[in-house]
Amino acid sequence: MKLLFIPIILSIITIATADTISVLDTNGDVLNPGIEYYIVPGITDVAGGLTLASRNGSCPLSVAQAPRGGGDGFPVIFTPANPNAKTVNIGEDTNIAFSAVTICIQSTVWRLTGPDEVSKWFYVSTGGVTGNPGKNTLSNWFKIEQYMGVYKLVFCPGVCDVCRPVCGDLTIDVVGDQRWLALSRGSERAFPFMFKKA
């Protein structure tokens, strides 16, 4: 009787894993954890890739978009919540960290901060922690979703069953000549991105 359950269990596992879709880079290859990629605009002639900048002249640094002609920005490394993951997958929690040396003592792992006292925006900053999924690291987890034929970045961590985080698409908040990565307040559209192997 026990042997009859094995095919049923295997078919359930196959169905569950068949829904996993890997994120692809600009070459059509799957994104792999621990490999450097640039996050570049999914639309052309807007601005450059994602980089680091100071919002208030001090640390920690925030995630910004390089100006037009500013290149691909700094490369990032993805670390999925599942430590056994071989690929970065659509809709799965992942840490994102710049692979760059800065003058700040904080890590380059992304985290959502805010809201800002003046603008009320939630901005993506650095100083997060890699791994250890749960309520203490809730602000450090992001997702990649398909969007407009490319991808969008989303903040809506699923690493804590009892937590109720603010959720939304990431967009670009333009302040003067600076472009900051921020959580959409609902009326702003997600910003389309692609991933280019460094």
Q: What topology does this entry show?
A:
Layout: H1 2-18, E1 36-41, E2 50-53, E3 62-65, E4 76-80, E5 94-98, E6 111-113, E7 123-125, E8 143-147, E9 150-155, E10 168-175, E11 178-183, E12 193-197
Brief characterization of the structure:
InterPro entries: Kunitz_inhibitor_STI-like_sf, Prot_inh_Kunz-lg. It contains one helix and twelve strands, in the order αββββββββββββ.
Predict the CATH topology.
Trefoil (Acidic Fibroblast Growth Factor, subunit A)
- Beta strand count: 12
By secondary-structure content and strand pairing, the structural class works out as: mainly beta
Approximately what portion of the residues adopt beta-strand conformation?
25-35%
When the domains are counted, the total is 1
Reading side by side through the largest sheet, how are the strands ordered? Answer: 5-4-1-12
Shape: globular
What's the CATH class label?
A: Mainly Beta
**Number of helices, where a helix is a run of at least 4 consecutive DSSP H or I residues:** 1
**Overall radius of gyration:** 18 Å
Order of helices and strands: HEEEEEEEEEEEE
CATH architecture: Trefoil
Biggest beta sheet summary: 4 strands, antiparallel
**Whole-Å distance between the termini?**
53 Å
Question: What proportion of the residues is helical, as a percent range?
Answer: under 10%
Low-pLDDT regions: 1-16
Summarize model confidence as the mean pLDDT: 90
Keywords: Signal
GO molecular function: endopeptidase inhibitor activity
Protein name: Miraculin-like
InterPro entries: Kunitz_inhibitor_STI-like_sf, Prot_inh_Kunz-lg
